[in-house]
Amino acid sequence: MALQTKSLTANGSKGHHKFTLKVDENSTSTPGNTSSISFSFKISPIQNGWDWYYYNNTISYSVNINGQNFSGYIPNYDGSSTVTLASSTFNITHENNGKKTISISFSVSDASSASYTCGNASASSTMILTTIPRATSCPSLSGD
């Protein structure tokens, strides 16, 4: 059974930084009718040298996976590294027929007026998870 993966990427509006949300389906549980999902949300440079420090709550991000929201701030960035801003693993329950499509999105809001910070960014999509086989009911057989 092939497990699914999806990546979303968007550049910051100031042109110096890139954001990537990667969502992986790690495993499925037939008895539980669930998928184990993990995600990572990262910032990386498009061009090195665009760093910022001590910006506290000025630059915020939000990641949404199937209605679960993960948010935070980016007070510092060194201008050259790929940094994981958020990550998590959790289970998602499928529909009764074993199918499931989830929504995935992220947004970054930069309220600073500086030219060297990341700017705003956003991306959204859907992800079709692996269909989990469901038991079918068999007709009862009665004999004379």
Distance between the termini: 42 Å
Structural class: mainly beta
Major beta sheet summary: 4 strands, antiparallel
Strand line-up of the largest beta sheet: 1-2-3-6
Rg, Å, rounded: 20 Å
Q: What average pLDDT do the residues reach? A: 95
Q: Shape, please? A: elongated
The CATH superfamily turns out to be ApaG domain
Order of helices and strands: EEEEEEEE
CATH class: Mainly Beta
Q: What amount of the residues lies in strands?
A: over 45%
Measured as a percent range, the helix fraction is: under 10%
Count of structural domains: 1
Give the CATH architecture. Answer: Sandwich
Number of strands: 8
Report the total helices.
0
Pfam families: DUF859
InterPro entries: DUF859
Protein name: DUF859 domain-containing protein
Question: Can you summarize this structure?
Answer:
By secondary structure, the chain is mainly beta. The chain is 0% helix and 51% strand. The protein has one domain: Immunoglobulin-like.
